[in-house]
């Protein structure tokens, strides 16, 4: 694959992952505020991919050869059950637009900070400008939460920030692990399913049996197929082709999709503050991803 083809494929994968992230955020918000609790959603989110991808993780192994334990741990913590529970719990307190801006906007900031801390990777001027716009969007929306514009949303916002930090850790760990996109998705799902077992034993069962069947089937599609299988694979493909920081930056487009979905599906109004924060995030992702920079760097160490 030529450099230009690799870059184009990476940009397309990044945009697609943002769309899936926005859809997942709205579907999660709808579920956790109506019929299915976060812990029960996690069963669908990780159990279904673990079953479907069983041939992959059986072949690769739960401890893939050549992958240091620290990178494997970062992948499971950052995209597996811990990430899912934190993000889904946050959706109970804050609207979809907040989930999009805080998770997607903060993730590139954490990813860039970790990349600089561990490997002294410095963003170029365009990327640095984009990160500033992302930080501004988070600050604007966060200030509104703590001032009472969205009463009680600050609890969800803090959880979204934690989820963003975890996802940034996954991005960097996956990049260093050297696994393929399907391999990474399979290993993360398998370990998450294993972690669910003691969780379910402690809880004494699952509330899925009491939830409406239509809601369970719908969330099985959204959580298990769209987010758990397709979403994780597409994001992994973006990391392989662009590098962790640039792939994570594409998440800044997710607030647009989550805000539109929240308005259309959940009747959540988009305030003036929401629109400003979303606009700032979109500008930030355009700059930070390198999509508008001719000859943008393609990470030669990835994949």
SSE topology sketch:
Elements: H1 3-32, H2 38-52, H3 54-60, H4 69-79, H5 81-90, H6 96-119, H7 125-146, H8 153-177, H9 181-203, H10 213-242, H11 244-249, H12 254-265, H13 272-288
Comma- or semicolon-separated keywords:
303 residues; mainly alpha; 0% strand; globular; disordered C terminus
| Radius of gyration (Å) | 18 Å
Report on the biggest sheet.
none
User: How does the helix and strand content classify structurally?
Assistant: mainly alpha
Q: Please state the average pLDDT score.
A: 83
Low-pLDDT runs of 5+ residues are 292-303
- The first-to-last residue Cα distance is 12 Å
* Annotation field: number of helices: 13
Order of helices and strands: HHHHHHHHHHHHH
What is the general shape?
Answer: globular
Kindly report the oligomeric state of this protein: single chain
Assess the beta-strand content as a share of residues: under 5%
Percent of residues in helices comes to over 70%
Q: Count the beta strands.
A: 0
Provide structural commentary.
By secondary structure, the chain is mainly α. Helix content is 77%, strand content 0%. The chain contains 13 helices and no strands. The protein has helices at residues 3-32, 38-52, 54-60, 69-79, 81-90, 96-119, 125-146, 153-177, 181-203, 213-242, 244-249, 254-265, 272-288. Helix 4 packs antiparallel against helix 8 (153-177) and helix 6 (96-119) packs antiparallel against helix 12. The two termini are 12 Å apart.
């Amino acid at each position: 694959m030529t450099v230009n083809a690799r870059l184009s494929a990476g940009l397309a994968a990044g945009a697609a992952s943002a769309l899936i992230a926005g859809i997942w955020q709205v579907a999660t918000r709808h579920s956790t505020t109506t019929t299915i609790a976060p812990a029960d959603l996690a069963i669908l989110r990780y159990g279904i991919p673990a079953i479907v991808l069983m041939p992959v993780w059986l072949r690769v192994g739960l401890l893939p050869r050549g992958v240091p334990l620290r990178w494997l741990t970062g992948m499971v913590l950052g995209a597996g059950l811990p990430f899912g529970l934190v993000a889904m719990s946050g959706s109970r307190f804050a609207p979809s637009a907040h989930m999009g801006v805080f998770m997607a906007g903060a993730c590139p900031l954490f990813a860039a900070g970790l990349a600089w801390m561990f490997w002294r990777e410095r963003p170029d001027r365009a990327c640095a400008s984009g990160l500033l716009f992302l930080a501004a969007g988070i600050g604007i929306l966060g200030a509104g939460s703590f001032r009472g514009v969205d009463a009680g949303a600050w609890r969800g916002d803090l959880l979204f920030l934690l989820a963003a930090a975890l996802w940034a850790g996954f991005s960097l760990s996956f990049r260093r692990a050297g696994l393929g996109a399907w391999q990474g998705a399979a290993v993360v799902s398998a370990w998450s399913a294993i972690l669910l077992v003691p969780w379910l034993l402690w809880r004494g069962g699952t509330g899925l049996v009491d939830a409406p069947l239509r809601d369970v089937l719908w969330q099985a599609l959204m959580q298990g197929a769209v987010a758990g299988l397709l979403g994780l694979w597409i994001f992994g493909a973006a990391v392989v082709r662009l590098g962790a920081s640039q792939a994570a930056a594409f998440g800044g487009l997710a607030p647009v999709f989550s805000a539109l979905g929240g308005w259309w599906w959940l009747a959540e109004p988009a305030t003036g503050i929401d629109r400003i924060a979303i606009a700032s995030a979109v500008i930030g992702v355009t700059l930070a991803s390198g999509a508008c920079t001719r000859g943008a760097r393609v990470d030669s160490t990835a994949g």
